Amino acid sequence: MKTIKYLIFTAFISTLTIACDDLDLEPKGILAENLLFKSEVGVQQYFARVYNTLPIEDFNYYQGEGYKKEGNAWEGQKNSPSSVCLEGNGRGENMDAGYYWPYGEIRYINTFLTEFPKYKENYTESDYEALLSEGYFIRAFYYFGLVKRFGGVPLISTPQDPKGDPDTLKVARSTEYDTYKFIYNDLKYAMAHGSTDKKRTTRGTAYAAAALMSRVMLYAASSANYGWTVGTTGPAVNAGLMIIPQEHAEEFYQYAYDACKFLHDAGFKLHTAGDGETAFVETMVNDTEEDIFMKRFGNVTTLEAGGNRNTGLFHGWDAMVLPLGTGMSSSVGCALQGCWESAKLFQMPAIADGDGKPIRFNDPSELWNTDEMEGRARATFFFSGMIEPVSGEKMDFRAGIFKTYGGHTQADGCPYGGSNDFTNENRVIGGDNEMLNGIRVNGRYGMVTNHGDEGWNYMGIGVRKYVGTTTGRGKELHQSSTNWKVFRYGEVLCNWAEAAYELGLLRGDESLKQEAVAHINELHVRAGARPYVYKADAQNVNELDAEQYPYSYDVDENLQYIRDERVRELCFENQHYWDLRRWRVYHDLFQNTIAHCLSCYYVLDEDKYIFLPDEPSFNSYRRTFYSSQYYKQIGDDEINKNDLLIRNDGF
Q1: Number of domains forming the structure of the chain
Q2: CA 30, 35, 39, 42 torsion: positive or negative?
Q3: Among the ranges 294-308, 437-451, 620-634, which has the highest mean pLDDT value?
Q4: Would you tell me how many other CB atoms lie within 10 Å of the CB of residue 615?
């Protein structure tokens, strides 16, 4: 399929041709640095290039290949990170983080940070500091994209002369600890001196810096706290280039904690209008008081520092996740779907009794049209029978019919490998419009056997998060205009809870652990979920259920719940893949692992419905993550150019 690219603006800056996107930045023409740095509009023009290529895992991020700079890459949803971490299911099976070595962009922003102070007299003190801080925020973002892949990297803070002695251009890797501290110092400056205008949600304000700080410092703390559990050894580990010494975990958790408190004290809060479902839908598709930093999509015709522009940056989310059909997706459809592994973490009615037998429902809507299901779940997923609000279409995802089910268990109806004697005799699945005793075998948008993995829902769960609510235009490929929420207060509360609980464990402080649960319950109030009750005598989950939690280190019940909350709150926001990496549990959980459906079946002889967590008929990949994949290997091209670079261990 043809990729529709960003609407490109062109600016020649120091003889460089650059492309930009829509982050409130617009190049104006052919200008030199000495003109650009004299005004805020000029600085925005200069920033355009580096904002365009910020390492943001947005709608178009392609798992295993990385950041798509050219724009509306429709393959992104097919290969979403959600597909490789059991948030959802699609074609994605590449567990690799994708190569990333953005030193050209780092040199570009270093030029600004070095030269901009010469133009201080052109600005008020506050405006000068806000722009300088924005530069530090951008540089920190780039280094974060590096350190979470490679560990310690070369730290370059001033622009190098590409025409200089080649040996002077060679910079050795700093330790992973020092790399994170470098980022910390950049963000600390930006938090102290950046703009405090909350309306600037597409710019690197003090608040965007604090949100990035809260995320980055959790990565650093996790590397220190859990990096040792994998057992990687070698020269890079010995030199501190991989894995932060465990004694620094408390330091970094405290940095994350403080950044979250900074945002709380600044007045950020959750969007809570309406019930849990309404509030969460609005949080993801509207601009709200929860927003801290976002990547804006759609036609935008204003520039906050003056001037006009008409950008056309869109994405294909709606068309790619909704099913094909009248008023629904007009192209592809269902490229990314939900899965049972993530859905079951939400508060919802049981689908099996204590004996493992499927609970009968008079109608599929009884699963979700009840207070037993938290509103946040209905805002994250489409379940069978829900109504898509723009088209008014019923999301009928029925997978098939059982002639009879009797006293069989769930396991009898969804065996390993997909079938057994019982299902072969009693389960009926079919192609589009096939009938049994006058009853359509599959739902209008449910699993069909005469098509591929596109267009129809074969998982029993659809993706609702980020789907537009006011116009059908987004259902055409590359016409979605929902903004990507890079940082929002919901994530901050998740970060705060994790940092507080980990600090409580390290310090033996019960009050910090209970504070962590309070942050989780603030999310639950908005979600329409029951509060979580803190367990003072929490047990290790790997002792309670070693099959579900085959961890190589201890995680207690409270901490596991806090980690699971990140799936409930941040599902499809491309965080869980990185969470599993930083916690060093990916290789424990993903060994020949497959996603499961929430398949709705009609039981013919009972006139009832059941839900089964069976294996998918399409994209039934069994995914494995290897311990060597926690760090990327530095590429041969870079090693050949710079013999000071030490390769990572474990490969």
Answers
A1: 1
A2: positive
A3: 620-634
A4: 18
